[in-house]
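Re-running Homeobox domain-containing protein to confirm reproducibility after the cluster update. Everything else is unchanged from the original entry.
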Amino acid sequence: MPGMDNIDGVLGDDEDAADNRPRKKRYHRHTPQQIQELEALLKECPHPDERQRLELSKRLCLETIQVKFWFQNHRTQMKTEIECHENSLLRQENDKLRVENMSIRDAMKKPICTNCGGLAITGDVSLKEQHLRIENAF
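Result of re-run:
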C-alpha cells in the first residue's frame, strides 16, 4: 500500500489482518529465584503499593503488570486454600452435631426416669400422676 512504511514489503499474516485483534501474549513461567522473592514479599506485604511493585519488577526483570497479577493471583489462591480448610473444619463439626442430634432423638423416643432409671411415662399423664408412679416405683 502506498504511504505505509513497511520494511519487508509484507503486510503480515492474513489471519491477523482479518481479525484485527491484538496477539495474545505467551505464557511466562517465572524463575525459581523470581518466585522466591515474590513469595518473600507476599509474606511480608500481601498488598504491595505501586512503588513496591515497580521496584520489585525492576529487580526481577518483570513488567509491573506481571508483578501485580502475580500478587493478585496468589492472594486469591491463599484465600481459596483458607476457605477450603475452614469448610473442612465446619464439615467435621457438622458431622459431630448430626451424630449428637441423632442420639438425642433416639433418647427422646425412649425416655428414662432420672430418679429410678426406669422408663419414664410420657403422654397424657399428669405431673401429679407421674410423681405418684415414681414414688410407687421406690
